[in-house]
Amino acid sequence: MASETPSSGTWFGSAEKVGRLRGRIFKWTCLGATVLTLALMLVFLLYVANDAFRPFSADPGWLATMGLTVVVPIALLAGYYYRRDRSAGQVAYTALGLPVLVALASGGLWLLFRHIVSPREWFVLVVSIVVAGGLVVGHSRVRHDAVTERLVVTVLVPLLVVVGIPTVLPGLGQFLYLLPVLPNALFSLILGFVLPVAAIVGWRVRAVRDADRDGAIAAGITVAGGLAGLGLGPLVGIHPTSWFVFAAPIVGALVVYVEHVVRNDKGLSGLAFPVVVVAGVFAGLAVTQLLGFAGPDAWLNMDFLTSAHDTDPSEAGIYPTLVGSVLILLVIVLSAFPVGIGAAIYLEEYATSQGRFGTVMELIQVNIANLAGVPSIVYGVLGLAIFINLIGMGRGTAVVAGFTVGLLILPIVIISTQEAIRAVPDSHRQASYAMGATKWQTVRNVVLPESLAGIFTGTILALGRAIGETAPLLMIGIPATVRIAPDSFLSRTGAMPRQIFSWSTQITTEFRYGVLAAGVVTLLVVLLTMNAAAIVLRNRSQQTQ
Amino acid sequence: MTPTDPSPDRNQRRVATDGGVSTTDDAESTSDPTEADGDSEKLVDVSSSFTVSDDDEDRPQAAETAIETRDLDVYYGDEQALQSVSMEIPEKQVTALIGPSGCGKSTFLRCLNRMNDLIDIANVDGEVRFEGKNIYDEDVDPVALRRKIGMVFQQPNPFPKSIYDNVAFGLEVQDEAVTDETVRRALERAALLEEVDGRLDESGLELSGGQQQRLCIARAIAPDPEVILMDEPASALDPVATSKIEDLIADLSEEYTVIIVTHNMQQAARISDKTAVFLTGGELVEYDDTKDIFENPDNQRVEDYITGKFG
């Protein structure tokens, strides 16, 4: 530079010397691609939401009232959080999102209680598990040093107590059924669900606050929230058992979260957000009712969620297939997750990269990456060939559907779990080994606790992929429409994406636009809530590390 | 104890650093370069025949040997990282390993608790005798060995757990009873208890770098090992934190055999009783009492290295 004589007089800021045009064009092109993606997503979502909710079918007065009571306060609060208190904004969306997420999970549980496990069976199961857990803990207290014996006890006792030996010795549950007095459904759920949830909440609060009294208070609030259903439920037309299943977890989660916010004393004002939203909705509904404004004639409403398919579009609903999807998800969680996480742990922590065995492992690794890209219809054929034709399981059952879609997301689970495990710093493993820890102790005490949040994130995202898969369901004979919800994992079941696909082929236009859109939105809400949970979990784990 | 004002008894043990090292006629007269490799007998001779001129040395001269290596070779794949290193490391003293980067001093340290086993391509030849047993024998479980020989790393690496759980970790994995008392005693011996008392349930990651390193030392000494290996424990720390760690090492050597790798020659001179100088290629060039190494090295290359002409 120094040797060049500046001919133009100024060496700074001359466009000829420092060419930036190509860089600028590149930057704007990339921005364009981003905007295009987002815009397409937004247009699609608005389009579907418009079809599903039909907001413009409502009275203008209804829209105005709701806008005043719900949208305006939300916008004002959001603006306040954005300007004044960013951490309160974070608290606000968590405080609103957490109950929604828990409600969704409770909804799945409610479906199970209604169709698969009766409250009484659940109660017996909980008692058996508690007894088995007590026996295992008791054994480890009495015989602390007998490591091998404890291993046998930990595996065998729960099996014996909960399942028993088929045809020889019934499990504890069988004996409990012989009791002359068993609690009815209501008390079964209080004892087997509300109280355990409250116990977990109380134990957690007690652990973080290190005070018995606070734990007891937290548990008490949870129990009160659950039992309020006995009085309030009939008033608002909700059966007390349903109230228990939804209210206890939601109240419990809120108690834990509010305690967390209050203890950290950061963003307290964010807690006002969910209160304002809920109050706004109720106020709006009350005012519109009073003034006689009609709400929108939405396709997606309570009737849609609680009724089965019907030849009349206005009567059609998604309920049985919703139950089916929940069952399929449960099968996936219980089958694909343990296998996938186990395989990932082996590949990351145990498999060597040396010698002939190392070559085999490398081959497996490459193939797992390839399997993640295999078209889903191929997995459908695989499921049909193996589970139905070879093993002879029933066509279109939740088990077969869960196994097949589980197979499909297995590579995704393995790869994301491997990434989570790889994110654990090697220095922590070294530290553990240098302390004289065995491989198992290192994996158990260092690697798994540190990668757990990452593993959850990856698996939840994989589950989101699973819930929308349609092609494999077509191959393994999931029925196009079902009118009755499945009552076991082995009965024929519907699934949401399959139902949506069959609505798209109906001749009536209302099916192809309204009902279809309502189904898509239902599916999207479930999926997006799960993804949001995964993202929040990931952010939290990044903050703590 | 404040970091800038070390306790007097440590001053006594300190050896003159820069002043003593400056080249004199005396140093040049010992021009006969001693070849260290493969000559363990000679090394023993050197250390036992040495007599201190200053009488403020508070260490017994003929200390028991804690660890002895014989003709130790290490290969990473085809590359040789250590060449036939033989040395005897005295019990309950501080032994410093110094030398330029890549000279094999960390490799040597990691041989002593078989951490090199974790590197697939590492290959160890020769013997390391610890409590009368070659630790590379078939019947030695590296896990059992590491329970006797603790280690502290260059970067502070506490687990993302509470301070209490960090210290309790070693006790737990070694199936020893975890009591508040043992945890507190380990923290106290690592000179950390005063600073963290009352917040033992906070995350170990919330401590400062120097505190984290002392937490790692507390974690290493909680299960009460025989030997503590330190791989440049202060190189990632500021001078104040470094000084605290150095004070701590001096205290620890009353109970433990401490072997420390360091890049910092002043540090080696300050804190160690014996010093081993490794030079390029994984060769142990000179091993002697720290005073001799820094004041009157036998080997010209060692002298060049210490005076900064090389390395």
UniProtKB/TrEMBL annotation, chain A:
Keyword hit for Glycosyltransferase: no
Domain of life according to the entry: Archaea
Residue span(s) of domain ABC transmembrane type-1: 322-534
CDD domains: TM_PBP2 (cd06261)
Key words of the record: Cell membrane, Membrane, Transmembrane, Transmembrane helix, Transport
Topological category with respect to the lipid bilayer: Multi-pass membrane protein
Keyword Transport in annotation: yes
Location(s) in or outside the cell: Cell membrane
GO CC annotation, single: plasma membrane
Gene3D superfamilies in alphabetical order: MetI-like (1.10.3720.10)
TM region positions: 25-49, 61-82, 94-116, 122-139, 151-169, 181-203, 215-236, 242-259, 271-294, 322-347, 368-391, 397-415, 446-467, 513-537
Signal peptide as annotated in the record: none
PANTHER family per the UniProt record, alphabetical: PHOSPHATE TRANSPORT SYSTEM PERMEASE PROTEIN PSTA, PHOSPHATE TRANSPORT SYSTEM PERMEASE PROTEIN PSTA-RELATED
Family per similarity comment: Belongs to the binding-protein-dependent transport system permease family. CysTW subfamily.
UniProt protein name: Phosphate transport system permease protein PstA
Gene behind this protein: pstA
From TrEMBL, chain B:
Domain ABC transporter: 67-306
Keyword Transferase annotated: no
GO molecular function, one term: ATP binding
SMART domains named among the record's database cross-references: AAA
Keywords, ordered alphabetically: ATP-binding, Cell membrane, Membrane, Nucleotide-binding, Transport
Comp. bias intervals (Basic and acidic residues): 7-16
Keyword Glycoprotein: no
Region (Disordered): 1-61
Ranges annotated as biased composition (Acidic residues): 25-38
PANTHER family per record: ABC TRANSPORTER I FAMILY MEMBER 17
Protein name as annotated: Phosphate ABC transporter ATP-binding protein PstB
Encoding gene per record: pstB
